[in-house]
Amino acid sequence: MGSTDTKTEIKGLLPEQLEDVLSKHGFKRFRGRQIARWMYGRGSTSFGEMTNLSMSARARLSDRFSILSLECAAVEEASDGSAIKFLFQMPDGARIESVLMREGKRRTLCVSSQVGCPLDCHFCATGKMGLIRNLTPGEIIDQVILARQHLTDRGEDLTNVVMMGMGEPLLNLEAVSVATRIMNLDYGPSISNRRITVSTAGHVPGIHRLIEIGQKVMLAISLNATTDAFRNEIMPINRKWPIEALLDASAAYQVFNGRRITFEYVLLGGLNDSVDHARDLVKLVRRIPCKINVIPWNPIEGEAYDRPDEATIQAFVQTVADALMTVTVRYSKGTEITAGCGQLYQKWAEA
Ligand code: SAH
Predict the structure, then answer these.
(1) Which residue is catalytic, options 19, 97, 139, 168?
(2) Has 97 been annotated as catalytic?
(3) Residues 121-139: pLDDT tens digits?
């Protein structure tokens, strides 16, 4: 049947899936947990390291199975150490970026879910790539494993994950949800659902599917506009699922998970950043328990938007705060290494 040199890839399998696969190949089920510990806890990429398995078991495992490891093609660190950008290469040559942010005791990894993105939000660099392909669960979790190892080497630990890298996580939801479950494993990355955020440009059926899947991760919605007319213009996905439908789905998710939704709002100078826009934003979302995260636009190549000045940012934020809503500004870390929100692009591919 299958050729003998095609090995079954096991990174990205949940422990119970791994047990099933192993027992199908004639191994004892409990080997699944042992291997998952090595793979997701210690970051092992070869069976040779798994010293609690017999030599013969290790040899048989290596004959049949492989353990994916993304190649770290480059690492770039902001001069103040607040952001570290990783360029990862996959076995087929496709490349993605992940960004590690360090702030106080918090170590947050911004993880990619797709190579490129099909949604074409006009202010975002990743949108310019189009969709190249979805990532597998193994490729998603490996970003976490590798960044975590990088931190361990410095005596630090990863505390949070945000699915805010390249791609639209809800368009690759089954893979994302396997990866986020692996993130939970107490012998693995051990990141609780409260410290995992899935961010969406507004894929309404995906939000409902996320409720069905039932893992209570945090949800962020990239709202970015207060009217359908403007949102249609900057985010084509809005033509399919307009603001009201998106807010209804967000409200349903909030009830499901019991925690506040985050609304992200990219400030585009002169377009959506006035005090009146801030008031409209408050009116729109106030029915939903939420926080607002304002992101001043980070410049990308070839886009003619402006980043608002500091006074405009502060006036916007103050207006939201005066309405007694929780609001924060995300001054993206790592813009000097183009690791800020919306700046991730496969540019290094040509380097
Ligand atoms: N597709 C998902 C995940 C990407 S998250 C989503 O849209 O939510 C990326 C976040 O950065 C989104 O909130 C997006 O609105 C924001 N963003 C995109 N381009 C940006 C830019 N150039 N400057 C600042 N924020 C940007």
Answers:
(1) 97
(2) yes
(3) 999 999 999 999 999 999 9
